[in-house]
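Expect chain and fold; see below:
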Amino acid sequence: NSSQEGRTLMAAATQIQNITPGEAAAQVQHSLAMEDLEMTPQGKADMDDAVEGRITPGELVERTRARYGLD
């Protein structure tokens, strides 16, 4: 479900500082697949922005929290 994706994205975003963004994105994809879930298009776009350096890990967390009403 989308709240699970939000938690997974937030967890990955906090790890981006310790691993490369690409590694964090791969971990997110793997975590979702293990739970038989898929990343939403909006979540994927946000993760791509973080991987490419267009947004910071903090901004990824903010976007994800806002999308799921966790502000």
